[in-house]
Design goal:
By secondary structure, the protein is α+β, with helices and mostly antiparallel strands. It contains three helices and six strands. It has a single domain, classed as Alpha-Beta Plaits. The protein is elongated and about 55 Å long. The protein starts with a strand and ends with a helix.
């Protein structure tokens, strides 16, 4: 069975959210994962109680790079992000687990 959680989301914006709301954490998850599967995966992996899960789907972007040898076009990958809210007082050590 493939894991629903791909990696923790450690960005400047997500760090700001985690500092403001100490019980919110972000993860990049599988595209076909639903909120119930994400909550179960976080609960089993980190042994915490999940109150809510918010998900956001991102489309890949077209990117073009100009070089000496010509123009290269490509796409960034699409992904799904989940923001998980935990029970008050519980935390996840993302840097220790990643």
């Amino acid at each position: 069975m493939k894991s629903v959680l791909i990696r923790p989301l450690i960005t400047e914006k997500m760090t700001g959210i985690s500092e403001k709301h100490s019980a919110k954490y972000g993860f990049v998850v599988e595209l076909d994962a639903n909120k119930i599967e994400i909550a179960k995966a976080v609960k089993t992996k980190f042994n915490v109680d999940v109150i809510s899960v918010n998900t956001i789907r991102y489309k890949g972007k077209e990117k073009t790079q100009f070089t000496k040898k010509g123009r290269f076009s490509g796409r960034t990958p699409k992904f799904k992000k989940a923001i998980v809210t935990l029970k008050e007082g519980q935390t996840i050590d993302i840097l220790g687990q990643a």
